[in-house]
Amino acid sequence: MAKITYISHDGTERTVEAKNGESVMEAAIKNSIPGIDADCGGACACATCHVYVDEAFLEKTGVQEEMEKSMLDFAENVKPNSRLSCQIKVTDSLDGLRVSTPESQH
Amino acid sequence: MDLSGADKIVIAGAGQAAAQAVQSLRQGGYKGALTIVGEETALPYQRPPLSKAYMKGEMDEERLYFKPAAWYQDNNIDVILGAHATRIDRAARQLHIEHGGVLDYDALILATGSRPRKLPCQGADLAGVHDLRTLSDVERIRPQMVSGRRMVIIGAGYIGLEAAAVACTMGLDVTVLEMAPRVLARVTSPVMSDFYAHEHTAKGVKILTNTALSHLDGADGAVSAAVLADGTRLPADIVLVGIGILPNEELAKDAGIACANGILTDRDGRTSDPRVFAAGDCASRPLVHYGRTGRLESVHNAIEQGKLVAAAILGLPRPAEDCPWFWSDQYDLKLQIAGLSTDYDTIVLRGDPKARKFAAFYLRQGTLIAVDAVNSAPEFLASKKLIMAGAKIAPEILSDTTIPMKDIAATAAA
Questions:
Q1: Would the CB atoms of B300 and A39 count as touching at under 8 Å?
Q2: Which CATH number is associated with domain A2-100?
Q3: Which of B10, B19, B293, B336 could pair with B105 as two cysteines, CB 3.0-4.6 Å apart?
């Protein structure tokens, strides 16, 4: 289990309990966090679950695989801490994770 | 018609389009009564994993559901499951449900989806013969997916080939039958068909094209063999049927709502009755990037029309219409498709299929209309934008892998 805080573009913070094994995207969708669309449901096919990971957690969220890297290359407003949230698996070590969502996923 | 005062909205269907519509309605500020009527007994769930990760046992059932049950309660959404909608009374504005239920509506959304085409031959109802459309189909199929068993798949479309990849990986002995001269004949070009046929064959799947099924033989009520038109008998323990789907349009048609291979809608998802909308597999909609109407069987389409319909009912601005997109996972190959390749006159390859990382671009009179991208996300994502822009790009630019897709997209946009 991990508590994850999603910060929307307007600064609103929402904290949810995420289960180990699910993705940071799935925890957001189950809790109706606005700002994450995740059209493909986590297949790494659509790049609509883009988030910015708090620097303190960047290492713990793991490395990007090539597919994710190239998908992000085409997302809007990409930053060094950009990730596709469907590719971040929740573990105990992510407890306290903070991610922000971009203004738009399209 | 202005429906912004609506306070009773009913949705017939409980798939992806319905799930999106209820979410968009509530997000859009709709406070009135909201009811989903679904034929299946499950809450709305994702179908794509049924022929992929879920079939393989790599994904828990819980992860298929868009929302947990509590979400529907928290959002004050009535969910009626295992219920068949029988009739629309347009004059009284009521949806009738089997066993006597009647729901009043100010606006009705038909998200009735589609159903698998049935095998027209003898033996189609034997035990061990399955469609692959619903969660309960997969519940029946999975216990039979045991290494060493013989599976015959009828139809080499995306569903059939995805299931073949899963079954082959699980150690089943898989044969795919296809009437057309090549796999994926209805949906893509010969170069893609050759590529996928080769991949499956290399993994040990037997692909029989130009092959017609005569009937299925059974023993003790269970399927035992697929018999081909030429008399060949293929012993089978399990048969999957993936020969296309038909839109569930009867509810609309019987009510006098215009249909033509799908329930006809305008850009907002409105049918010929201004209080009735249609979204998802069941709807035939304007394809704005292609200047024609058509029915799309895809996640993108269900999501987009769910959003369009919700916006139209609430009187909100129409959301932007994306270029149609699709994906298919087979083995370690991720195919991402943007656009509709029907009517292409030129095909351009970028990269080498032998490297299992390449794209096929489809052009019509010089304009990019679609791409099939295998393990090639940049080609897919760049093409989505280029297709929506109606970009004309020279074939020699598209095929030049020394020019990054990002640069091609930027140049074409300039």
A1: yes
A2: 3.10.20.30
A3: B10
